[in-house]
């Protein structure tokens, strides 16, 4: 790290003890900003980087709810409103037992730069809870969401903070959250949440957008080397929203996607993932990934967690789409020894710093999540545009807008990397390009 940035890093570490994912995300951005502060020393004088690393507001609250057995359960709710230089705070809600402040802060921090890269007027934020929807009835999930929104509603709004989904928060949860917001405020404020159902203010393509956008980014990276996805073997981790739609578009572009996973293990299906079956098990039945192998038969295999890693499967392209720090140095070595040519992060920070370095040193095309998975939040901003104009766009038009946005993100990352003497380094390009726009807005808006 540039020595001028070391004091900033030390202060962040001191102020946020125990928040290792947040520190990891800050480190990754600061590693890229050395050449920027050499060229723009006024950013240091105005403490812009220190300010970006400190959330504007952090809200932590109790979420009491009653389970089906009549017992009162208590969870903890979070919303971190990180940076509003470019627009209202925007970012998803994660419901997962691993959630604590450090996870929400890492995600909110990433969101600042990601949202800037989309070119849309949205700031960065994130929220969630340590509540686990897995194994809970629809009624329990509804009571939890209603209680969560009973506190959150006072902090959010179309012009203030616009949450959406993330791990454990899909269409069902957004519906319950929206219903409770409407009931408490007595306002049909469509733009307060995104990821809504299509008949009540949602946007076509939002469901597909994150996974589709990741694959579009891969297409653009491969095109820079006169290559395509056609005929490539692709390994995908996860089997949630991002993984499913990354698989769908990769298949449409002629790739053979051979894996899917969840926290219980992974499946390897050399003939290619049967996406209708995967969607039925994961989206409709909310089942486990080994059900896939039982119903698919043939050469599909299930490998339980602890008995192997999805990244041991030979693939030309790897798409980590499950969760943070799921692809380690040893996984990167396995992928490299099998000849991987491109890796794109559908999830947020799924690749450890060590694994990222291994890919970059081997000249593998590597797309960081804040660029590659920005299609989801970009399409959320398109949903907000439709809500604000009381309009509803068609699928093809919205898809084309997403395609154009993803190409713009790819080209900006490539151009910034080139401009700072790091051609082909999409990590540096994304961090620099995302940062510069926010930093200039903060300078223009004074010391706030
Ligand atoms: N949904 C969206 O629009 C966006 C999501 N992301 C990121 O993509 C990733 C996946 O999110 P979604 O697909 O929306 O969530 P989801 O809840 O639909 O699916 C999450 C998937 O990850 C797996 N998973 C979660 N924790 C795991 C663990 N500890 N070990 C192994 N597998 C695990 C789950 O089994 C599931 O298959 C997350 O990192 C999220 O932050 C990023 C941008 C937008
Ligand atoms: O659509 C959104 O607002 C949020 C998406 C999200 O949480 C993410 O980009 O990680």
From TrEMBL:
Site feature Important for catalysis, where: 166
A matching Pfam family: ELFV_dehydrog_N
Domain Glutamate/phenylalanine/leucine/valine/L-tryptophan dehydrogenase C-terminal residue range list: 203-446
Active site positions: 126 (proton donor)
Protein's GO biological process: glutamate biosynthetic process
Residue numbers binding substrate: 90, 111, 114, 165, 380
GO cellular component labels: cytosol
Residues that bind NAD(+): 210, 241
InterPro entries: Aminoacid_DH-like_N_sf, Glu/Leu/Phe/Val/Trp_DH, Glu/Leu/Phe/Val/Trp_DH_C, Glu/Leu/Phe/Val/Trp_DH_dimer, Glu_DH, Glu_Leu_Phe_Val_DH, NAD(P)-bd_dom_sf, NAD_bind_Glu_DH
Highest taxon, organism lineage: Bacteria
Keywords from the UniProt entry: NAD, Nucleotide-binding, Oxidoreductase
An example Gene Ontology molecular-function term: glutamate dehydrogenase (NADP+) activity
NCBIfam families: PRK09414.1
Family to which this protein belongs: Belongs to the Glu/Leu/Phe/Val dehydrogenases family.
Subunit structure comment from the entry: Homohexamer.
PANTHER family according to UniProt: NADP-SPECIFIC GLUTAMATE DEHYDROGENASE 1-RELATED (PTHR43571)
Protein name, per record: Glutamate dehydrogenase
Species of provenance: Kocuria subflava
